[in-house]
Design goal:
Elements lengths: L18 E5 L25 H10 L4 E5 L9 H10 L3 E6 L6 H7 L5 E5 L5 H8 L5 H13 L3 E7 L8 H14 L3 E5 L11 H4 L10 H4 L2 E6 L2 E6 L21 E3 L5 E3 L10 H12 L5 H13 L17
Parallel strand pairs: 1-2, 1-9, 2-3, 3-4, 4-5, 5-6, 6-8
Antiparallel strand pairs: 7-8, 9-10
Length: 323
Amino acid sequence: MTEAIPNPDNFCGGNFQDWLEVNLLKQCNATCSWCIEKAGWHPKEVASWDKIVAAALETGRENIILLGGEPTLYRHLHDVIHYLNTAKRKVWITTNGSMLTEDWTRENLYGIHGVNISLHHVSSFHNSMITGLKLDYKALSQSISALHDMDASVRLNCNCIALSVDSEDRIHKYIQFAKDLGADGVRFAELKMDDDYFIDLAKILDYKYDLNDDPFTLGCHKEAVIDGMPVNFRQMCGLQTPLRPKPVNPKQATKQVLYYDGKIYNGWQLKEDKMTKGEIKKLMDKVAQGKITPEDAADLLKGEMEDSYDNGKSAGSGGGCVY
C-alpha cells in the first residue's frame, strides 16, 4: 500500500528536528478538557534535575522546550533554565500562566529564550471556565514586560473553541488583546480529538492565510501577519481529528521526547490503561450520531488493543506530532 506523505514543513514531515521537547513533570493545576497528557504515559521514576539537564544536552539539540504537566510548577525550574542557558541552548517554555507574576518571573525564568502562554479567551473569567484557573491579566502583562526586560519573546497560544474564539471577528479581537498584554505573537490552534468543540480555522477564515482542508499534505502550520501581529495557525489533520479525512498508511517522522525519568523516548508515550466502558460507549454514541465513521472507531479500538509500552520504546502513535 502506498504511503501518504506529509508536507515537509509539518512536524510529522521532519521539520523542527532541532527541537527537543521535555516533559518535566506530570502535575498540572489546570483542568482543560482536551488535555493530551490525560491519555499520556507517566513514568514511575523521577530523575534529578541535573540528570534531566545532562540528558537534554547529550541530544545536541539547540532548542529545548519545557513542557509538562505545568512546567512552572517544577521545583528546580530555575536551575534547569540556568544550566541549559549556560550551555548555549535556547530554552523555551509553554505555560498556562498561573504562576506568572513579575517577581516570580524575574526569579525563576531568567535566561529563558521564549515563553508561550496558553490563554483561550480575552476574558479572564471565560478563560477560567475553560482551564479552571483564575488568572490576573494585569499581572500577566507585568510578567510579559519583565520577560522583555530579560530579552525573552512572548507568544500567546489560543485554542480555538466553540463559543469562545470561534469566528474571524473574535480572532481579530484576540489579536488586539494580545497587543494590549504586550505579546510578540499569537498562535491559533484547532483542538485535537475534541470534535464537540472543534472550530475549523480554514472555514471561519474563508481559507485565507493558506489554511486548507488537508493539513497532512498541504501543511498544518501557517504563518501570517494580521493587524500588525505575527500569527501562527496550527491545524489538525485526520490523524488528530475525525472531522478530516484520515491519511492512509501515513509516513511520519518521529521526534525525541525527554521525560522526567531522565530517559529519551521516540515520541510522546501512550498510557498502558485501556478505554473504560464509559469511554467506549461515548465512542459508539459518536458513531451513532454520525460524528465519526465506524471505520475510524474500529481503528481507535484496535489501537487500544495494540498499544503498550516497553522500557522506553514508543508506545503508540506519538509519531512526529503531539500539539
